[in-house]
Hints:
Blueprint: E1 7-10, E2 13-16, E3 19-20, H1 21-28, E4 32-36, H2 37-52, E5 58-63, H3 70-77, E6 82-85, H4 88-96, E7 104-106, H5 113-122, E8 125-128, H6 131-144, E9 148-155, E10 177-178, H7 182-191, E11 195-202, H8 212-230, E12 237-239, H9 258-276, E13 281-284, H10 288-291, E14 295-306, E15 310-314, H11 323-327, E16 333-335, E17 345-350, E18 359-366, E19 374-377, E20 398-403, E21 406-411, H12 416-420
Parallel strand pairs: 4-20, 5-6, 5-13, 6-7, 7-8, 8-9, 9-10, 9-11, 11-12, 12-13, 15-17
Antiparallel strand pairs: 1-2, 2-3, 4-14, 14-15, 14-19, 16-19, 17-18, 20-21
Helix pairs in contact: 2-9, 5-6, 8-9
Amino acid sequence: MILPPHLSVRDGHLWIGEHDTVGLAERFGTPLYVTSEDRIRENFQRLSGALTAHYKKVRILYAAKANGNLAVFKTLASMGAGADVFSAGEVALALASGMRPESLLFNGSSKTPSDHALAVEKGIRVSVDSVDELRQLDAVAKEAGKTVEIAFRVNPAIDVPTHPKIATGLATSKFGIPAGQILDAYREALALENVNPVGIHCHIGSQILAVEPFAREVEVLIDVARDLLDIGVDPAFIDIGGGLGIPYRRETDRAPTPEDYAGAVMPVFLRGIKELGIEPEFWVEPGRWLVADSTILLTRVNSTKTAHKTFANVDAGFNLLIRPTMYDSYHEVVAANKADAPAVSEYSVTGPICETGDILAKDRMLPELAAGDIIAVLDAGAYGFAMSSQYNSRPRCAEVLLAGKEAALMRRAETIEDLTATMVTVPWQE
């Protein structure tokens, strides 16, 4: 197995940075999410460096949905990141981390009046998903006596090689306004008093392992910019969204590097803006690429069983990591306390949830396992805890942040009391 550079094997145990994962499991309990702050910083610096090597006016907006822990936000805020936010909660986290309102973009296809009011109040730019939303936002801004800066989200009708549930730039996607209709939307925005169109926004999907779709996306946005100039809109930014994938299967996945990505999109962008005579900021919205490999999920084997196949039953299920069940996603798994032992048996790693689909890893060659062993699920930092739930009335687990030799909780484990804390006894049951 090929490990990412911040993971290693020492004395038979899996280590993350300067920490023995077995020791972390004993100290903090399992299940446990463990995140390397150092790795997030390394990822940010590499992506930022690859892009700014071509063009200095680059802004990185962290896709907040990938991992919503405040400590993760603070790490990225300290490096100058803004955020792509989809909810009032993500706005609150971004602002609490020190991100400036002007470094945020409020996205989404179904914003509420309160979402619009929050954006207007805080001075956050809004990516508008429809003409109906445009009119609603203008009314909210008018009532507040303010003007809100906007971009429209363009649907470029680009098919991308990824899971259909996360392909957001398809013509059939719920997101954005078709490129052929976008100019009319900008014309209407120009006629309104309380919105100011200042940018262009697009996002074509997630976990994309090819660079060509991103280059085609930029071509579409340059064409939109050309049309906007004709009606008097000089875009201050062009936002191409996120989507750069990672190699979950490191032995076989051929994932583009940040340098590959920048080498594909930036020449198209630079040629386009030079031809148009404009110098907008170049915005990107990475999430997965920044945080996915920073995190592992540690889970303890409760029992093993051989039936039609051999199962390793662990204490983490799809309530904590739903990607394998929801997307048939692949995550590498390592026997953390037997990391250098030979792989001698095939196991399916299964959780405690009352669903047949509660499988974290199917048919993996691992060392001989027994109750008490620790399994590490790799690359769990994006859409792991962020999509977790209390299904089966199971409290969600703790999260730990590592920095150098330091380790501390960044989210405590929930308790049984937490499950009922928001529940109220109805009058007729008292």
